[in-house]
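Input:
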Amino acid sequence: MAVRIGVYICHCGTNIAGKVDIAKVVEFAKGLENVSLVKDYKFMCSDPGQALLQKDVEDGLIDRVVVASCSPLMHENTFRKATERGGLNPYLFTMANIREQCSWVHIDSGQTTDKAKDLIAAAVRRAFLLEPLTKREVPINPRTVVIGGGIAGIQAALDLAEAGKKVVLVEREPSIGGHMSKFDKTFPTLDCSACILTPRMVSVGQHANIELMTYSEVEEVSGFVGNFNIRVRKKARYVDSELCNGCGACWEKCPGTRVPRKGNVHEKLSLGPTTPIYMPFMQAVPAIPVIDTETCLYFKDDKHACGLCAKECERGAIDYEMKDEIVEFEVGNIIIATGFQTFDPSVIKRYGYGEIENVMTALEFEIMNCASGSTGGKILKADGGVPGSIGIIHCVGSRDKHYHDYCSRVCCMYSLKYSHLIKEKTDAEVYEFYIDMRCFGKGYEEFYDRLLTEDVRFVRGKVAEVTDVPTCKAEEGKLIVKVEDTLIGNVRRIPLDMVILSTGLEGHATLREIAKKCSVSVGQDGFLIEKHPKLGPVSTATDGVFIAGACQSPKDIPDTVAQASAASSAVLSMITREKIEIESATAEVDEDKCSGCKLCNTLCPYLAVKFDEEKGVSVVNQALCKGCGTCVAGCPSGAISAKHFEDRQIFAEIEGIFSGL
Amino acid sequence: MKYTYYPGCSVRATANIYQDSIDAIAPALGVELEELDDWNCCGATAYMSVRELMSFAISARNLALAEKYHRDLVTPCSACYLVLNKTNHYFNDYPEMRKKLGQALEAGGLSYSGNINVRHILDVVINDVGTEKIASLVKKKLKGLKVAPYYGCQIVRPEMGFDDPDDPKSMDILIDALGAETVKYSLKTKCCGASLMGTEEKMALKLCRELLADAERNGAHCIITLCPLCQMNLDIYQSKVNSLFKTKFKIPVIYFTQLIGLAMGVKPEKLGMKRLGVKVSGEMKRIIEGA
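Output:
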């Protein structure tokens, strides 16, 4: 039976019709082999546009569909569905991109019309060779793993658990809580961070549906959407969590230290005990200490002479022989919420961090402000004195082409919060050195307005340097901030007692590793790439892998929590479906041709090609394969073919392109 | 190791002690410097902001002359280093400028393809000769000599690639290799006042005072430098700084090549040490003579 192809040409308003002579293209398409009908319409993606082709299919007028319009990324799915509703296999539809690849990118309208013709000729030839493919479905395991136990991971885990779904929460550190647990107050409301976070941490620890794995790291992720296999390394805490009741007798008697013994106030900053056996902070969940083997005297000394904590522990919970434990489990979906780390300012030599005393990072200042921290929330100089003047330098590592181009979004606001806290706790003069004040969130601008009335000096200008070299009496013994005050048009030298560097946010050091394990891409900015910057902010290019919080971009707490809830609701929608349709256009290995060189195994970005040792050939896991074609192009034996993108289909397309010559 | 040598005007006049010390140590370091025949003024840094094309053309003539030797072009002067590199950059990265400069050179019967690598002699000493070799040549231990390494502004900025623009370390490493002690010197890349000494003298003297004060504060016996202009401002004008600001600085400011020579046991007069504005005295004299 002859093939009957229907060609539908979209005007896209004037997007296409303004540059392409539609009437000429329609005439041209009518003359192509196997084309039974050609229609054009203002907006093919609109309801009447879709109905147009659907009806022609229903009426049996055509059995292949070509739509010449925009990029397949935009509307391939739309037209596939319309084709299917008409009663045809959706893979018998193909698209010619005459917008992004034609009308939008060329100036001469004569050329655009010719190019549109070529692209349609190519699509028609391809359509002739299309084969129906069957849809495939896989079941979805209702359990989810959340990687990262900061506020993002906590929120996502609680949302899922409250909905009655099982969650495994894996956290790298000894306690959940993340960065938020280090803050004293949160902007702009100035509510106590611990007061709002701690109840949620406790809920995570107690929830029947949440299995908490702290001090643990994801080692390997295998499988595919609905059916992931997760391998986790539970690092040895050297404290038995079943026996320990968190009484604290161990660290109270511990003779060692994790901070410099003779260090100054700033070097000794800590939220919890500074001993080698320690709890990261008092509200830790789980409330079980851990031993830092780098500084523990027992581990340092071959004879294991110390052992004091084991003697002190009434419950016998200390176990120096404890080993790392590997745990494996299955989940249906993954939420990555690994958060951020702050920029290391020591690389900006001009700011003197690590070289000059009393230059500190924002995070260190947070810890100093924490009521439960080593200074009891007092703002102190390195020598323990009270500072009479403090400068806060914005955009350290952010909005700087040498480090990070992007704005870290939270620094302006936390800097304002610092000014407020300093004014509240001390009589110090406060300077904010800023480039622009970016107070974009709810209540943020109002907070800035409030600070303007709190006697804080705002200096607009990027700080050139922080130095301890004085040029006059008034500067002696001070830190001098050298800055161009762009509002008065002068270079100023401002002597201060303390300088806080408002360091930007960057993806955590382990982010690339996690991203690779989960087949998610990392962008140029060092953060995870979401599926769509506007319309797919929590999903990724890999089905079943979702992202939340600062691993995707710098975020404040409200945005992080919102994204975490969005990610958990996306996961819930997956779980509720119970089954998921997966890509039909996948790659296949011809076992007779495969030489077993394994090249494709390493090429596959989705880790979908594995080697079958028994048969000596590579095999594509159909559930994992995205049909990207990398292995097809890479195979030196030509043994791999991609369904829907077979060689003969592609060659026919190329012939079509050149048919106009 | 053979290089084409571009001395620049300073080392043949005000900074001839720099040239003397280079001549005194180069053979031992295995560095052969063949002077570029018929070289002319680099155009100096100020000229570029006045007459762009003319200054680049003057500078490019040297590069064109150097090209036939297929060797790196080495200069001891920071200003020459900056200007010649900048010319290279404009020639290679701006097609319009390349065209015009090509025409200018052609009028003089020359051509340039843009392939000359311009290097500072410090770069050659540290990265080609290497501190290991330098350490092996040390005959006089400079133990106890506290040295402030002063790089000035032109050697590392804009980013030239051979050292960190904010915190250069080449001379710090060199001082260690010679057995002396590097003192903390956070003003190591700050401006000495440069040619402002001729126009805005007070301003320049103030900048010099800060550099000298920080060296003294950090306990330096001497400052080492790599730039003829920096050396002149800090050394020759030190007495003027003292009389203007009522200070009592007596800090010798010497070239890094002189320090290498001293450590190698070269006689001080061969290194031009006698012709310094601020003579070596006190602790430094004791260490150099005693060792």
